[in-house]
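> call design_seq(struct)
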């Protein structure tokens, strides 16, 4: 018997990712612009009920309408996520500053919602760098896909393929929902593979029948039909034997 528990743990992210990729494009909400031109953000606001100034820290969140909902985006999060050439190296894609380098007082001073769904922000009280010596000139642009992905907790979870439900099953459930897949179909038919992957994601168990006799690399081939296997000092797969008083808990 091969190391199937290890394979299950290794392949689950690939299984979830394959399922999510087939439906992601149908689930994109639309971004509705809340502003049609560049707007300066004031340093203070007047309360309607009281003649006093509201602290600029009350503007630590920007509110953008996405899919008909007004959703808040934290200013520190947006600044940290800037992908401009001064923040992320264009070749290595390495982040060029530490999150903790961002001043807590950073906030947007100009905001622009564009026709393509992207948002442009000019920051105030920002990092002081050779490109931004006063800390008042840094500009960030966030595209529609980024805003959609981080608009809600649900979207953030979906973007990481972590929202696949699992079904706890017993004998009664599995007798009704058990799935048998022919080996040749599994290896050559994408629809059969999708059905098997979906079953694995929901139940964690499928049965593949018709595996050619004496095929020593069958498990490896079936696993790599879904995704790459992690190679360890045991190899890609290994035999598990039941030995009395074994010292290895694997």
């Amino acid at each position: 018997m091969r190391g199937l528990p290890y394979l299950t743990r290794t392949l689950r992210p690939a299984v979830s990712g394959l399922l999510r990729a087939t439906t992601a494009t149908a689930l994109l909400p639309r971004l509705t612009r809340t502003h049609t031109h560049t707007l300066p953000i004031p340093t203070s606001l007047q309360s309607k009920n009281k003649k006093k100034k509201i602290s600029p820290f009350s503007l630590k969140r920007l509110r953008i309408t996405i899919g008909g909902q007004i959703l808040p985006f934290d200013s520190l999060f947006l600044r940290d996520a800037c992908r401009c050439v001064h923040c992320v190296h264009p070749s290595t894609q390495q982040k060029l500053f530490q999150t903790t380098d961002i001043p807590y007082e950073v906030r947007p001073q100009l905001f622009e919602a564009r026709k393509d769904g992207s948002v442009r922000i000019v920051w105030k009280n920002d990092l002081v760098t050779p490109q931004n010596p006063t800390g008042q000139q840094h500009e960030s642009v966030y595209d529609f896909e980024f805003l959609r992905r981080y608009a809600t907790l649900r979207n953030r979870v979906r973007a990481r393929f972590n929202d696949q439900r699992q079904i706890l099953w017993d004998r009664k459930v599995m007798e009704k929902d058990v799935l048998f897949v022919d080996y040749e179909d599994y290896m050559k038919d994408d629809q059969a593979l999708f059905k098997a992957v979906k079953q694995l994601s929901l139940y964690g168990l499928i049965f593949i029948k018709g595996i050619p006799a004496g095929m020593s690399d069958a498990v490896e081939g079936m696993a790599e039909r879904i995704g790459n296997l992690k190679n360890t000092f045991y190899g890609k797969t290994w035999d598990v034997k039941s030995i009395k008083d074994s010292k290895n808990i694997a």
